[in-house]
Structure formats: C-alpha cells, structure tokens
Records
---
Amino acid sequence: MANTLSELTLRSSLSRLNSLKQRSDLLQALRRFFWQRDFIEVETPIRLITPALEDYIDAIPANGKFLRTSPELHMKRLLCEGAEKIFQIGACFREHEHGERHREEFTMLEWYEAHCDYRKIAGDLHELFKFCSVELNSRQEYFSQELEVLSLEDAFAKYAKISLEESIENNNFEETLCFEVEPHLGKERPTLINDYPASMAALSRKKQNAPHLAERFEVYVDGLELANAYSELTNANEQRQRFQECRDLRKSQKRITYDLDENFLQALENGMPEAGGIALGVDRLAMVLSGAKDISSVLAFGDE
Amino acid sequence: MAVIGVEQLKKNIKLKIDGQPHTVTDFTFTKPGKGQAVYRCKLKNLITGNTFDRSWRSGDNVEKADLSTRQLIFSYIEDNAFVFMDGETYDQVMLSKDVVGDNAHYLIDDGEVEVLFFEDNAIDIQLPNFVIKPIHKSDPGVKGDTATNVTKPAYTDTGLELHVPIFINEGDLVKIDTRNGEYVERVNAKK
C-alpha cells in the first residue's frame, strides 16, 4: 500500500514537473519569436486607477486601485509615444471568472504593432502557432495549416439553430455562441472568426466599407477561445464616446463603473499611429499544446 | 431564504426554483472574452427527481432553498400516513406515502431515520445503510442442495422480497443493505 501510494505521488509530481517544464519552454519560445522579429518586451503597471472600460469585464479592487484586466491601454500609450513593436507577458486579473477554462488570475500575452492592422496580426499569429508547435514539438501538423476563416454570422449559420441576428434579438448570444458554436471551432485546424458587430468591440476600429462591423477577430483551437485581436481604434473622440456608452451600460445594470482613463485619451488626442493588437491567453495556449482539458493542469498551483 | 448572486453557484448547492427545491448536480462557468458570463447548471428537483439544464447570466440572482434535516423515530402507520416522532420535542410528524415511497419496507418500529425538510414540509427520508428485519415467509431449502451461492426468495415482515441463502428460516433476523435491497448476513436473535 505504502509503495503504491508513493509511486502515485511520484508519478503525479513527475507529470507536474513535466508540465512546468513545458510551460517554461513555451514562455521561452514566445519571447524568442518576438525578439527575432525586433519586438521589445515591455512591463506596464499592474495596479491601475482606471482599468479599461469593458461591458462585461470586472476588475478586482486592490487597495484604492484595481488590478489590471489587460495591459491594453498602457501598451497603446507606448505606441503613441513612438514604440512600433511591443509585447508583454504577464498576469491579468478578472473578477469572478473561474472554471475549467478560466481563472481570476491568468497569464496574458499581448502584442501591438504600429502601421498595420488586424490582418498583419492574423498572419503573425499563424507564424507564432507554427513556431511554438515546432519549438515544443507538439501538434506541428495541426498548427502548420492555414487558419480557417469564418465570419461570426457564417459560424452561427453553420453551427447554431438560430442566426446571429436572432440570438442578439433574443438576448441569448452568449449561450448560443458558447454551447452551439464554439465547440465546433478549431477542430481540424485553428479557426479565425471575424466580422463582429461593431457593438461587440469597444476598442476596435470599424470596417471602412461596412461600419456596422468591427475589425476584430478571435481565434479558436479545439473549441477554446485563445486570442482576441483588433485594428486598434485611434480616434480619441470615438473612443471617449464608446467608454461613456460602456459606463452608461454598466451603471444601468448597477455594476461598478470606472473612471475614463484620461491619460490614455490624451495620448490618443496627441496622435496614435494605425496599429494592430492582440491579447492571447498563455495558459490556454499551454492547454492546447499539451492537450490539457482543465486550466489547472497547466498552472503551478492550479487548485489554489 | 437568502438570495445570492450567481457568482456563488457551485456543485451541490440547493436552490429554490419555481417554488421547489433543487440541487445543482453539475456546474459550468463559460464566458466569451468580451461577452457576459454564463453559468450553466444541471439541476435535479429534490421532490420529483426530474433533471434539466438551466443557465444564468452574470448579475442574475438565485434563491437558496431552505432545507434542513431532523432525526425522527418511526412510530406507526395510520391510514395512508406514516407517523414519526421527534425524539427531542416529542412532536408528531406525519409523512405521506409519496414521501416515504419504497423506503417503507425498511422502516422499523422505534427506528431512527433522517428526514429532509424543505421549508416546513418533509420531502425525503434517508435510511441507515443497513437495517435488521425478520424473515416472515420463506420456503425451506431443498435438502441435498449444497452448492454454494444458492438462494431462495424470502419476504420480510413488511413484505419486501429479497433473496437469501437456503439456510435462512422463517423467524430469522437478517441484515439488509437499504441501498440495493440485498441480503447481507444472518443476525443472531438478541432475545
């Protein structure tokens, strides 16, 4: 009995060490990928006075400030100051998000590139997938394929019982997306979903020839949402208006609201170059590379 | 009873939905990156046993079910009701046939059971895992049949049918597993 127990402990600690090693390899691969492309790694504040206003992302209070839900606004300020290619890997925090695929504290990779849009980001994301799968020697065949591209509307038409429009009208967009559409995405190869309604992208530029749509995409692997990308909104007035709309929505739902980030809006007023940017969940990337079904498997202390 | 935010949902929590008590048998948190969180639960109605799925959004509230348990002692059957007594307060509690169901077979005079209450109504009883019952009726074993694991049908005082080894006679006391209704062993009479 004692033997069996210690064998079990040994085996589980070996698999734990193995997953820590894999994660370390992944972090190194990510950094190498960006260094090779002349990106600079930045570290921006983790405690913020004014977290980015998003309709449904809540920040965790931290002694008079808030823990960042994303480094987005500070990174864009660096673009305004002249940085052209920047990336950051670090912890972000979102209140009440906890499940098999969520943790309130998680690791995010964000990168931004000036003088381009979300199409360039999509190409780089594909390169990043290939690079990581080769470096970690994992699922190379899967990740070497071109991304499947579907509009959100087509994805609903293909997989859901109701159309995108109906799901928005019926107020069950999230349920339909999560339970009917997402499980089919990224099965054979990574799937890129684009053409989101403009109302679902507070920080993204609108499509020039179709202003009801946003220049936003999400990428899915194995039904798991891995990354969200934008052609960044650079117009200060439009950004201010969207923040205010978001504040109004949150107020009407009696949820906590945050002040507008005036430093960020001032930076936009002074001028932000056209840019593309993306936020990618590193824990989830580790999950799809290792085949883990629960996010706790890729964290050093996943059960705490 | 307390109203809670859906963020506090978890497995095994008890909720009052449409006036009836339910238990959350499975729970999934999902959230599109930019969308509202969806809390999907598998629920089981504690009275009817029906199961179904229900989703809530972040910001929604749910009501916890007021459930409690009491240790009650079985007294007697009157008309269509089972009469129990609270050993501490000596209150009488009547449980209907619907609530007791097949568990009636395992009730023992003056035996203790755990009764689950929803608000002021008893909704379920929890038996001990094992009870000792007398065998009232069973044909004698066939002579010469010495193979092991040979069983024969038998009936307890409450009419429960079970299979017992052939050496069990009418009047013997036997230990029964209430979870599957199976014979466990013969018990020597204490008298």
Note: The two ends of chain A are 28 Å apart (CA to CA).
---
Amino acid sequence: MSSVIVVERVGLRTTVQDRGRIGLAHLGVPRSGAADWRSAAFANAIVGNPADAAVLETTLTGPTLRFEAPATVAVTGAPVDVSLDGEPAEFGSQIRVSAGQRLTIGTPRVGLRAYVAVGGGIDVLAVLGSRSTDTLARIGPPPLRSGDVLPIGAAPVASSRLAVSEGMLAGVLPASDRPLRVVRGPDATDDAMRSLCSQSFCVSTNADRVGARLSGATVDDGGEAPTSGMVRGAIQVPPDGGPVVLLADHAVTGGYRVVAVVIDADLPVLAQSRPGTPTRFQEVSTQQARAASEAVRRELAVASSS
Amino acid sequence: MNVLGVRAVGEWALLFDVRPSHRHAVADRLRQAAVAGIDEVVPGENGVLVCFAPGCDVDADALRAAVDAEVVTETIPGAAELVVPVRYDGADLGDVAQLTGLAEADVVATHVACDYTVAFMGFAPGFPYLDGLSPTLRVPRLNTPRVRVEAGSVAIAGDRCCVYPGATPGGWRVIGHTDLPVFDVAASPPTPFAPGLTVRFVEDGG
C-alpha cells in the first residue's frame, strides 16, 4: 500500500502540477504544468524524483499537510517559512518528515508560488498523460480542498540528490535590476520592440496561471492576427496595446499579434511576480535565449548526476 | 514551395507560414519528418506551429527542406469522415433564418448539405473550427457572447461552423445540438474531431 498525505488546511490555492500535457495541442488540449518550471524541477531534483514527478504549487499562502508515512520533502520557489510540527524547517533543502508529522507552508515574503516535492511524487490519477491541474481548460485534478487525501508514489531509490544553492533558488524571483529577456516574436516590428523594451510595465491584478496582463504603458503595432498556435511566454498585444504574457494554462490558439516571447529561462520570474511588480524587458538573440535555457538545464543535470 | 516562410516563436518553436489549403498536408509532413524533439504540431489559420522540447536542436532549414521536398496535395488521401447527428433546436436558429432571409427549414437543409473540414482546433480542448459553411449562412457573431454555452452546441459565425466541447463562454450563433461526446478525457483520443477531418452533419430525427 502506498502512503498518503492529508490536506489539513488548503491555504489560498494549491494545485498539483508536473511538466504538463504534451502532444495534444492540435486537439486543443493546452500544456499546463508548473507555472515556475525551474522551481518545480529544483524541488524534484532535491528529493531525487524524476523530472516528470508531480509536485504541489501553492499560491501565496500554502497548505498544512499531514504525512501518514515517513517522507522526504523539499520546498522551493517563492521563499516561505516552512515548519514541521511547529519547528522551523529549511527552505530549499531536504526535509525528513516522520509519520504523523504536519508540514506547514507559510506565505512568501517575495514571489507568489512555492513548490512542494515529496519523494515518490504526488501520485494522483493522470489525465491525458499528466497530473497537472489546468485551471482554464479544467482538465486534471481540481485544486486541493481541505480534507483531500493525496497518494504518494514509491520513494525514489536514486541516491543522487541535488543540493541547490541559494543563488539558483533565487534566480526565479523578480529583481528590479534584471529585466525579463525576450526574443523577437513572429509579429515583431521595430516600433513594437522599441516600445516594449524602453518602457516600464507593471503586473496588473489580471494575472493568474493563464497569463499576466501588464499595465503602465502600451506596446506599438498590436492588433488582431490570424488564429495561430501559441507558446508559453508569448507576449500578445491586442489593439489597445496592453500586453498579455501567456503562462502555463494559456489556450492552444490565440488571435492577437505576438510581438515578442519571454525566454523560457526567465518565464518563471513572471510566474513569481505578484500584481504590482515592476517589469521591464530586454531583447536578446535566439542563441542567447537557448544558451540561458541550457544553463538552467545544466544546473539541474550536474546536480542530479553528482 | 509549400512553405511560404518560417518565423521563430520564442527559442523553441517555429511557425511555418502556409496557404490555408496546404495546412493539413504540411502538418502531416512536419509530423512525419525525421526530426527529433518535436512536441507539438499545431495547425492554425495561415500557418503550422511546431514546438520543440527545450534543449533540442531546432533546425528550421532541415524541417523546411523536408516539407518542401515534394509538392503537397490540397486534400489528404484517405481522410476520415465523421458524421454528427444534430437536433436543429438552437436558440439562435430563428435569428439566423431572419439574418439570412431563409426559412428555418432551409437553414437546416443548407447546413446539412455542406461538407465540412476541421480547419484547426483551439479556444478550448476539442473545439473544432470547421471550414465549408455555405456562404448563404454567413452571419456575424452575437453582439454579446453567452456566458455559458452547453456542450454539444452546434453553432455558426462568419464563414465557419463549430461544435462546443464543454460548457464555455461563446459568441457563435447556436443552431442545434448533438449528443456526440465532443470532449472526454477518458476517451482515446479525447475528441472525435481532428484537424483535416471531413465532417458531415445529419438531422437527428429521433
């Protein structure tokens, strides 16, 4: 019999997330998956899980979880106070939980979403190949409710477990001196790129797992466009010029011009940005974007093989 | 020249610009191309998006060469046909008749007489955008979209027809309903629709 955790208190909003649904976009099925994919990957690596194991994604205030069996846990993402039966436990490191103990995830000082990985992964029923909750398409397990019982998979035997530095963990947090890097999008114009990269924006209250609408300035050359497949990070600019950056639960297709795309390595920063967070953009080449993405994967790979 | 242009969509995706009539054949070619790391091939209005797994070698030239190796046909040989039984009892059937100047019975007769093709899917899981609507049935979208459209609603707007897969908001004019499950996560595949599929509607007298 596999072990379980019981959700004693749900927090603001907690969902199960993994790497998302792949290969069904042509049928209109969105990818979904962890909004801050870097932090989710770090959490899995710290407990020795495979990269596709499901984790919990919190939103601001996290849950209280009671473990029915011993487990190894890691909390990453937005830095939060973590406590085990009321005693402080370490953020970003392995936490050994004994049977019957309660793990409480607090409210982050900065950032929005914390990730809780449990050795063996959250083993809820996969839907269309993924355990992710898609909040827009309503596919996958519903957001957690108090009293839910979550099955845990068999703990990994792998001894290789990632030790994550504070610098690596903090790489997903918004910082005023670090603009989000973008590459030119399929509908980019020079005016659009200039207006996007020379002004300061602000994450509006209209921000969730689907996307983040930015306020404070407008982007030139927006408008409608023929319906086309979309990617996470796409910066859609409707006719009013107010940019919307697509996040994990975005619909498969969209009908607005995509002037730029936030690079995959920096998208977690936007997923961690609360409403009101100042946001600036900086253009980079596709090569630089791929190198940044590669650097993140190398951090994970080096650690997972050590 | 099947591919009119290739545009990057971020560092891990390419948009292949094609004529609408070529989109399915090009999408098929892209799926069959011996290129590693392709996660998604998504047809759209004027292009096909190819998404790569991050970290893969994104070789636009190789992929373009594979698609352009021979001229593609406009129809996919052996394309399957889906028959959708419809009760023409939609809330907007009367308005569509008024807008088109047809009797309701003629709206229905015209709708079932057309052959449709799934142009692409999106908006919601299992939502097909169907080409092939008769020009006599062209009507604008609702001025105010409905907050909730029932699953199985068959609707038209502009030069397209659609079938709502689940309860979503929607602005297309509903002319009927089908009991055909349009999206079911327990089914494999989860929807009977797919890009390129031929679709016929028949009046469900039962």
Note: Chain A is about 15% helix and 30% strand.
---
Amino acid sequence: MDIVEVLYSAVRVSTPLVYAAMGGLLTYQAGMLNIALDGFMIVAAFAGIATAFATGSLELALIAAVISSVLLAALMATFTFRFKADIFIAGIAVTFLAYGLTALLLKGVLGEDGVFMSNTIPRFSPIVLPFIADIPVLGRILSGHTILVYVAYLFIPVIAFALYSTRWGLRVRMVGEAPEAAAAAGVKVTSLKFQTMLLSGALCGFGGAYLSLAYVSLFANQMTAERGLIALAAIFFAKGRPLPTALVALLFGLATALSVRLPQVTGAAPQLLQLIPYVVTVLALVIVGVRTARASNKHGAWKFALD
Amino acid sequence: MASDTSKHVVEMRNIVKRFGNFTAIHNANITIGRGEIHALVGENGAGKSTLMNVLYGLLPRTEGDVLLRGKSVHFSTPNDAIAQGIGMVHQHFKLAPSFTVAENIVLGAEPTLAMGRLNMRRAETETGELSKRFGLDLDPRAMVGSLSVGLRQRVEILKTLYRKAEVLVFDEPTAVLTPQETRELFATMRQLAQSGHSIIFITHKLREVLAVSDRISVMKQGEIVATIDNKDVTAQEIASLMVGRSVLLRVAKDEAKPGGRTMLNIRNLTALGERGENAVHKLSLSVRSGEIVGLAGVQGNGQDELVECIAGLRQPAGGKIEICDKPLGATPADNRALGLAYVPADRGGVGLSLQSSIWENMTVGHLPKFKRGQFLSIGDARARADELIKRYDVRGATLDKAAGSLSGGNQQKVQIARELSREDGSLIIAEQPSQGVDIGAIESIHRILVEMRDAGKAVFVISADLDEIFSISDRILVIYRGQIVADLKASDATQEEVGRYMGGLETPIVDTGASVKEPARVC
C-alpha cells in the first residue's frame, strides 16, 4: 500500500466533509444545531449535475448548486425563525424534503431511477500547484487536485478570520454563547443566525457540487451518505473551532481512504473495513460524550436522569 | 425642583400600558432630574420593570408621552434608547462569560478597522480608560467568567457608559452583592450622579433607598402613588405606601424554645464546587428542633453546595451529615424519608415543574398516600391540593393551571405547601424563601416558617438577604468561603456585625473544626 497515495486520497475524500463542517460550525458558533447539512448538500449535488448536463458549463453548475442549497437553508431558517419550529425537527424535515425532492426530480427531469450519469457532463480537471508540486512527498499529496479541493481548504483560514478577527464574528460568537447579552447590546440576534444559516447553505452548496461533479461524476439518491452528520461529529469534537474541526474532518477522511485501500492489502472483508470511518466517528462522539459528562457532572453533583 | 422642566432629563407623562385587557400601568407620571438618583420602589408585580421597559424601548406604551431632554421620543427597540443615551444595568447580567471584559463592553458598538476587522487594541485601551475615569477598576483582558459578581456588575455599568448613557436604570442591583460591594456600588452611583448622569434605582430594599437616593417614587398596582424627597420619609412610611397598609418588617414571634433534639447535624463537611474547588471546607453546624437558624452569606460562599449536600443532590467529599440522628441516605428520596422537607431556591428547575399543573406539583412527593394498587387516586390528590391552595392562600391558583402561570410569590407558596404539608418532615430547609416574592407574601411565608418552628420542627433558612435573616432567625450563622465564621444569637447581633463576617473582615470566633483559617482552595 502506498502511504502517499492514501494521504492524497484522504485530502480528496475529506473535501466534502470540510465544506460541510465549515458550514455547520458557523451555525454551531451562532448557537444552532444544524442537522440539515446532508439535505443542503444533496440538493446542491443534484442542481449541480443537472445544470452541468443541461448547459455544459461547470461555472453555471456551481452557481446553481450554491443557489439551490442557500434556498433550502433559507427555507430551514424560515421554519426556525419565522414559524418558530424546533430547529432539530426543521432539520429533519428539510433533509427528508431534500432527499425526496432530488429523487423525484431525478426520475421526473432526468428520467433515471437511483443513479444518473452521462459522458457529456464536464468534469473539473486537476490543477498542478506550482512550487508545491515540486516538494517531495508533500507535493504528491497536496498537488493535482481539482479547484474545489483547494477552495475547501482555503475556506478554513477565511472562516477562522471571519469568526475571530471581525466584528461580525465577535457578534456571531456572542449570539451563540449569550443571545440575551447580544440582544441587550443591540445586536440583531435573529438576523445574524439567519446569515450563518445561509452561509452554511452556501458552503454545503460547494460540498454538494464537489460530490457530484468532482469527487465522482454522477448523481445517486442520498449520495451524501451522512457526510453532514459526520461533519457535525467533527464540529462537536473540536468545539466548533475552524482549524481543529478541519483536522478532525481530515482524520475522518483518512479513515475513509484507509477503508477503501486496506482490503487490497489485507484481504480482510471490505464490508468490515468500510466500517472504519463510522467507527472513528462513533469513537470521537464517545470522547465528546465522556468529556461533556465529566464537565457537567463532576465533583459529586447529582445526575438528573432527564438531563 | 418639580416645577423647572428644563432640569428634567426624563419625563414620563400619563403612561398607560395594557396587555390585552390587563392594565399593567395606569397613568404613571415620573420625572428624573439631571444628576439625580431616583429610587423606584414597589412590590413585585407593581409595574416597576414594566414602566422601565417602556422607557427602554422593550415595550411599546399604550398611551402617554415620554420626554427626553424636553423632546417627545418613541423607542421601538432598546437600540433606539441606547442611541439616545439611556442605559440599563440588568438584574440578571447580560454577559458572555467566555469572552473578555473588553469584548463584552464593546459588543454592539465595536471599534473597527477596515473591512469590518475588530480593533481589539482600541477596545481594550478605551475600556481601560473608562474604568479608570469612573473608579471602576477592571482588567479589560480578564475573562468575564472568572470575575466575581460585583466585578461583573461593573462590566454591566461600563457597558452603558461606553455607549455614552446619561440616564442609567439599575434594576435591583444590590440583590447579589455583599454589603461592602453594595457600599462601593452606592459610591459609584453618587459619583456618576455628580458627573451629571441621572440614575433610576429600582429596588425593594428600603434601607438602601434611604441610603442613596435623592427622591423616591413608590409604585403600587401599576400606579405611582407618591414621589417623595428622601429626607422627608422613613422606611416604615415607604413600606406602608408600597403595600397600602402597615407592614411588619420583623415577624412577630416568641422567644424560641429549642428542644433537645438535633435534627440536622453536620460535622467537618467538605464538598467540591463546579470547578473542583473546596466550596465547603470542613464545615460543622447543627440545627435543633424548635429553632430557626438563618445562614447568612454572600452568594457563592458554599451555600449552594452545602444545601445540595443536605438535600442529597451532591455527594460530599468528606465529613458527615445526620438528619434526625440518622446518617444521610444515598439519594434525595432517602433523605426525604428521614424527615427532610426542602424548599429550593431554584423554583423553576428543582422545586416545581412549571409546565405541570398546580395539583400535580402539589402531589409529587406525596404519591404513596394516593396509591390505589398500581394507580393513583387523582380525585383524592386534587381534593388535597384544593385544600392546600386554601390553607396556604395561593392566590390566583386553580388546580389545573400551570404552576408557571403563577407569580413568583405564589409559586413559592405552592412548593412550601407541598413540602411543609408532609407530616414526617421534621427538618425544613428553606433556601432563599423570599427571593422574588413580594412583601405581603414574604410576611405570610415567614409566619408559616415560625408556625413550623413552634410546632417543634427544625427550620434552616439560607438567605442572601440580611433583612430576611434578621426578621426570621433565632440564631444566625455566617458562611464565608465554605466555613461557618460566626454563630450569633439573633437578638444580640447587628446587621453591621453580620455584614463584616460576610465580607470576611472579622476573624472567626467559633470553633468549627481544626483548620478554620485555611481559605478555600481552588484546584
């Protein structure tokens, strides 16, 4: 097994997780548990491939993907803020709506059941990074990806900057931790939450477009394969800080890459090895759970069963 | 003073505020002069907060006029009020604990560089200068979560000053402060007034009103019934204006006749706080039958942990607790079986289920009495709840109403009724029994506790309110940094003396164990 090749594919595999995680951590920092990341990505994946198929333009496809996913995020925000739905229920509703709608349109517009692919769909071509490509080992891992991979990793510092160095970011984080304090200081709490939700949609739009146009070149029902939930696990593990969240997402990506490569070398049942990324996710959540339990129940305080 | 309108920074004329059919404020008139400290007093529910929320733009007024510096204003959000120089120091601090002092202060009015970048350096120097100018010493880079309550209040005050507030509304600011911190706050208020700020001081602590205010407006049932110059009035007069009848500020009771039996016996108790510090450190105390013992202390000196240990809500790290001569059980239910009746401070969280009906709240903890095989005799339970509502005079209560729809005082009566109606409850722990309760109800709650004492029960009252401690206790204990530093006979003690112990200014006089002077450690 070629380690460099596994790492190269980890970067590739982690890309949609990074998009979803960056989107999800914005809402997390604003104090919302957004479980509709999969829903956002699946409409984007569909809108992307349908537009690419119809127009032959990847740029238009990307725009369509982002717009469709932002619209879904706006719907989610409307449920939550306008109609005061529980954000968890709204998230489930939006996700199921997205799964159902894309399956319906797949049949209705593209005339396919389950999977759509076509040779006429344009693909993102790999870009060789100047200078970096020449670095031994590292160059082979980091270079030669499509533009959407680079954009995903560029979003990490951008979002860190936005959250920690700007007025907007301070307000978002305050809204997340102490909404009443923010409101009392004249910060428009709902408006900021709305903004982070739309941005979450936009980032998932990139993630969805990446899935159907770059990672593979096809659309399949529920092809996001719960990447949104895995991204949420990364966010919780890293407490919503951008760089650590991205690193955890990369770890999950590495686990996936391993689960694809390991069967070839070990001869173990591939079905078993495909569990690796999910086992890693569960382990991460167990750590989060133990950590929270310790933090809240330490020093002998009574544990209320319903907490 | 009242005739010269140009001196008035704020004038509220004939304010009416209705919520549906309910009129919360009738024709309220109030004027605030420049550099004046104006106390707004009244019972809970008298409309003080509603009136101030109208001023602050949180509630739209139904009728009337608000004049700011002589001009009529309409605030639809607090932002409008803030922009016009009105600031509110909230009772429950509106602060984000994991952010710095400077970040909390500048929030909403942040200094920025190009592209929306925060200028934290400027924020820190500005807040530092501001805190020096008003003598409110604070480190702009300190985390708010690590500050004491008194310092957090300074952050709240600085927040309003940073926005150039000229009129500051203080909503029950002393509720959480030590006597020393209160004195410092009053000094700050006077200094602010001298520098031309106007201060509206909402409170129901009459002694403080007399100590600091220039004029006093008394609210009762949505009306301002009187505005008086401070020098012309006594606490007794204000109290009768507030309630509409004369109030006993001290409960009438006979000398305690403590029985021989120790109902609560605590020896060398150590308990850890949320951050792992020794919140209670080798603490010993006892409460006998037939006496009311009041535990005075500034919030956060281990009272919460102590009470949680007695109630079984927290595992002690060392020492022993005996309830009615028997060692503490393993669960809260065991302790109740030993004879503990517990009236917690956290009514909405620990004491009651606010969404559940009143009869259900009154029945919990008495379930065996209504057991019919595997079922519950709802009819009997409701009949008993009905009787309790009458006996404890829970106003506005019907059986099926949600407990949360009652006022604070009546919620308190519901939990007191449930706890004290237990025949086997011979040790009563009442935590902040009059918190958020109006004067009329405080009186009747105190009377109930005295009745319980006279019936031979042991009553242990934990309160941050010295007036309450003095009004009800036979014996006063003072807790400071997790230890009992004073054990005084209530009739001999003075508030000043207890205040000194609360602030740790006096060395402990009682022997409470081996290492009295060792301060609470933070791990």
Note: The longest strand of chain A covers residues 115-116.
